[in-house]
């Protein structure tokens, strides 16, 4: 049975499955099938499969063109694997030789399944069968390479196509331009756009919009607006996607006046912004802390008959959490839930992070329970946020329990989670626990970075265990790690704290030799160490170095200098440095 087509056959209103039975005799059935396929009325996979099976039982078997017409429908229904299997069945069971169009469908399906190497194998089969590939054959392969992220090879293939006599068509150019824009190669995409125009192909609004979107993402909004004017000047009308790309680009730079002008232009053309466009405005206002403006856009959204979605609410909740307005954040959360919009894991994580910043662990844990009730499994970001919250609230042992229980909830700590946990243990004076954690991480073959060891080094230095700290610091190159300015600064601070100024100075000198330039913080830390030991001459020497390098003293160094001057009024050396005569 073909199935129930009454909902989709608007043209043939009296046709039903019984009609199909009557038409299934030879030519009439094939005419009926072609009509369904060409008018887009086969919208259900089971119906398409039933048509194929009926064709396969016909005597004589229909031509390859009829089968290919139906296979194209199955491909458009996104049943790629089935389409490939049916082509194999045509060849092996029905004895139907595939033609170029049939194999084009196979290549397209393989490319959409990201099996690009098999797509090229089918191209080889075409040559063996004596079939001539078309521009569409090679365009499908170019599209496959772009989908796979191998845009450079797609460009090489496009160049090769032209050299061997396959002129690119408008679709091929569109695929290439879109692929280049998605991988951030916008300027190369612009060159292909110009090449397209040189070949007298007229880019459509999709191609122009792809390039404008890429330019905006690269921060080249001026160039995107120029291209927009060029497009309109050539008679290509912008669509909602075009305006949305430009609005996003302008919002990223806070160019609100121009955003308003574009919105006016849109609506004059009878094109109303949709939820996605308005969400860009809401999110951009929220990121700038302009909550009232964001709420005004949401009000406009509702007046237009558009319902705020989870992204809309999350933007507002996130900004309230950042501003420490947790009661407002929870009010928006309740409005969201009561309005029938289910929060996602991002919303919950934002709220949990907000309550953790407030050191209100009970509220954070309540939201974790609510997540579970709604069927959400907290991800590694949510767990990391909770662990950080417990550490900030001075409960590192409770954080540790969460850390080691993550696996029971199907989550594995990532390097960020480990860093947060380690920092909490170090700052909670649980150094032995911190060392044990790093040892466990090393045994688990986790790829530890310099950040992890820098956190541990800071903890060891803060505990006054300078020998252990130096041993760890010295072992880092052997672990294949590049010591950075932060790690050096922590070690210098630890040495200064123990009064080992000469060694700290040697380390400071070694930094430049190791291609790691000291920064403002490094010099301030060392000067503070010198001032603590009243090494005024050396302090002035490094203050002069700082001045020459364009660095300035920070608040802690300034306070130490003022304290020294107030208790050592007879010391003219440092006074003359800061207040030279004449």
From TrEMBL:
<feature type="repeat" description="PPR">
    <location>
        <begin position="414"/>
        <end position="448"/>
    </location>
</feature>
<feature type="repeat" description="PPR">
    <location>
        <begin position="99"/>
        <end position="133"/>
    </location>
</feature>
<feature type="repeat" description="PPR">
    <location>
        <begin position="309"/>
        <end position="343"/>
    </location>
</feature>
<dbReference type="Pfam" id="PF13041">
    <property type="entry name" value="PPR_2"/>
</dbReference>
<feature type="repeat" description="PPR">
    <location>
        <begin position="274"/>
        <end position="308"/>
    </location>
</feature>
<feature type="repeat" description="PPR">
    <location>
        <begin position="169"/>
        <end position="203"/>
    </location>
</feature>
<keyword id="KW-0255">Endonuclease</keyword>
<dbReference type="GO" id="GO:0003729">
    <property type="term" value="F:mRNA binding"/>
</dbReference>
<feature type="repeat" description="PPR">
    <location>
        <begin position="344"/>
        <end position="378"/>
    </location>
</feature>
<dbReference type="InterPro" id="IPR011990">
    <property type="entry name" value="TPR-like_helical_dom_sf"/>
</dbReference>
<dbReference type="GO" id="GO:0004519">
    <property type="term" value="F:endonuclease activity"/>
</dbReference>
<feature type="repeat" description="PPR">
    <location>
        <begin position="204"/>
        <end position="238"/>
    </location>
</feature>
<dbReference type="InterPro" id="IPR002885">
    <property type="entry name" value="PPR_rpt"/>
</dbReference>
<feature type="repeat" description="PPR">
    <location>
        <begin position="449"/>
        <end position="483"/>
    </location>
</feature>
<keyword id="KW-0540">Nuclease</keyword>
<feature type="repeat" description="PPR">
    <location>
        <begin position="239"/>
        <end position="273"/>
    </location>
</feature>
<protein>
    <submittedName>
        <fullName>Structure-specific endonuclease subunit SLX1</fullName>
    </submittedName>
</protein>
<feature type="repeat" description="PPR">
    <location>
        <begin position="484"/>
        <end position="518"/>
    </location>
</feature>
<dbReference type="Pfam" id="PF01535">
    <property type="entry name" value="PPR"/>
</dbReference>
<feature type="repeat" description="PPR">
    <location>
        <begin position="379"/>
        <end position="413"/>
    </location>
</feature>
<keyword id="KW-0378">Hydrolase</keyword>
<keyword id="KW-0677">Repeat</keyword>
<dbReference type="Pfam" id="PF12854">
    <property type="entry name" value="PPR_1"/>
</dbReference>
<comment type="similarity">
    <text>Belongs to the PPR family. P subfamily.</text>
</comment>
């Amino acid at each position: 049975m073909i199935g129930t087509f009454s909902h989709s056959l608007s043209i043939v209103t009296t046709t039903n499955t019984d009609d199909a039975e009557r038409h299934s005799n030879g030519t009439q059935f094939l005419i009926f099938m072609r009509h369904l396929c060409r008018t887009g009325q086969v919208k259900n996979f089971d119906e398409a499969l039933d048509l194929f099976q009926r064709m396969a039982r016909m005597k004589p078997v229909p031509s390859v063109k009829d089968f290919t017409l139906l296979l194209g429908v199955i491909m458009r229904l996104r049943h790629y694997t089935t389409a490939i299997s049916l082509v194999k069945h045509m060849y092996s069971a029905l004895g139907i030789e595939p033609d170029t169009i049939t194999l084009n469908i196979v290549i397209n399906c393989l490319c959409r399944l990201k099996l690009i190497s098999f797509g090229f194998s089918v191209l080889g089969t075409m040559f063996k069968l004596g079939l001539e590939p078309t521009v569409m054959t090679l365009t499908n392969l170019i599209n496959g390479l772009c989908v796979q992220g191998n845009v450079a090879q797609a460009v090489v293939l496009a160049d090769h196509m032209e050299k061997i006599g396959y002129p690119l068509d408008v679709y091929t150019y569109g695929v290439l331009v879109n692929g280049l824009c998605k991988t951030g190669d916008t300027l190369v995409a612009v060159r292909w756009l110009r090449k397209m125009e040189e070949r007298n192909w007229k880019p459509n609004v999709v191609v122009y919009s792809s390039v404008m979107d890429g330019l905006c993402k690269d921060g080249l909004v001026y160039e995107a607006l120029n291209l927009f004017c060029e497009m309109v000047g050539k008679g290509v009308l912008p669509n909602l996607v075009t305006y949305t790309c430009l609005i996003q680009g302008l919002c990223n730079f806070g160019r609100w006046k121009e955003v308003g002008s574009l919105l006016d232009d849109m609506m004059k053309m009878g094109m109303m912004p949709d939820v996605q466009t308005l969400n860009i405005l809401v999110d951009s206002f929220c990121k700038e802390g302009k909550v009232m403006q964001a709420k005004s856009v949401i009000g406009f959204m509702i007046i237009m008959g558009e319902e705020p979605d989870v992204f809309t609410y999350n933007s507002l909740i996130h900004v309230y959490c950042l501003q420490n307005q947790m009661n407002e954040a929870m009010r928006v959360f309740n409005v969201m839930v009561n309005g029938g919009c289910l929060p996602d894991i991002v919303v919950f994580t934002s709220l949990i992070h907000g309550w953790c910043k407030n050191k209100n662990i009970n509220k954070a844990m309540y939201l974790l329970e609510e997540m579970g009730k709604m069927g959400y499994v907290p991800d590694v970001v949510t767990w990391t946020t909770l662990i950080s919250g417990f550490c900030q609230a001075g409960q590192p042992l409770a954080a540790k329990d969460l850390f080691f229980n993550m696996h029971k909830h199907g989550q594995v700590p990532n390097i960020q989670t480990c860093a947060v946990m380690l920092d909490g243990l170090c700052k909670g004076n649980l150094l032995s626990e911190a060392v044990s954690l790093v040892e466990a991480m090393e045994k688990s073959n986790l790829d530890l970075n310099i950040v992890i060891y820098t956190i541990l080094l800071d903890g060891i230095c803060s505990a006054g265990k300078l020998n252990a700290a130096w041993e760890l610091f010295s072992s880092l190159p052997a672990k294949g790690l590049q010591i950075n300015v932060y790690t050096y600064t922590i070690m210098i601070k630890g040495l200064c704290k123990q009064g080992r100024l000469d060694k700290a100075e040697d380390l400071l000198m070694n930094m430049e030799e190791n291609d790691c330039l000291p920064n403002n913080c490094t010099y301030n830390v060392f000067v503070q160490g010198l001032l603590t030991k009243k090494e005024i001459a050396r302090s002035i020497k490094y203050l002069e170095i700082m001045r020459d390098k364009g660095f300035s003293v920070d608040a802690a160094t300034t306070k130490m200098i003022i304290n020294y001057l107030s208790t050592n009024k007879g010391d003219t050396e440092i006074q003359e440095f800061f207040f030279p005569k004449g």
